[in-house]
Write a structure and sequence with these properties.
single chain, 257 residues, alpha/beta, TIM Barrel, 8 strands, 42% helix, binds phosphoenolpyruvate
Length: 257
Amino acid sequence: MNRKYRKTIIAGNWKMNKTLSETKAFAEELKPVLGKHKWCEVVLCVPFVNIPAAVRLFKDTRVAIGAENLHFEDHGAFTGEVSANMLKEVGVKYVIIGHSERREYYNETDFTVNKKVKAALEAGLHPIVCVGESLEQRELGVTSELITYQVKCALAGLDAAQARKIVIAYEPLWAIGTGKTATAEQAGEVCQTIRSIIRKEFGARVARAVTIQYGGSMNAKNAAELLAQPDVDGGLIGGAALKVPDFLQIINAANQE
Ligand code: PEP
């Protein structure tokens, strides 16, 4: 983390978990114990149907609500899809784009990621763009090339002011939902690579300001060590964001003086 230059962001990704009543119960359990978390922004990315309730439930807190996906078009004949404007109007601040599950199961490509990033920015949302290598790619030694390609595609065509608003989540595929975490050094190294790509594309000021998260089995036990890396500015958290005590411990790790 480097709190002087950029925001630390702890974001939960609930995926397809929690009904409306479970969302309410989570909020009621979290709010009294949350504290001020003055050193980090807390975000909860929840299923579309729970967004309006989540926005209401966390209205008087500093917890921001995010979506897990969006469509890149404004409106039209796209059955089952949700646009950036729709999310903005119900109070969404962040949106996850290009999560590996979307890439794997729903044909998300680097090209659609770029279109979604532009649509989100246009509507005033902050994209959380996910990038990451598979185990095979890591073993082949192409992690850095692959991440460079993914980041460049995602940010293609943006100007510096837009690039500053992006959050990048480095999520090695082999670590997501597996209980297998990247070492702090591995996470730090790839996050540093991501920052150097941003520096080359948009300059040092933008690179210094962009929040780069690590995601992949981050939990109460390993969070502090991962967050101690200078280029790891927070976490995108799946499993451990579903239970208040686990999520709270990660938030607290990000808030240590
Ligand atoms: C994720 O889905 O973005 C994620 C990091 O999941 P988990 O923390 O469960 O590995």
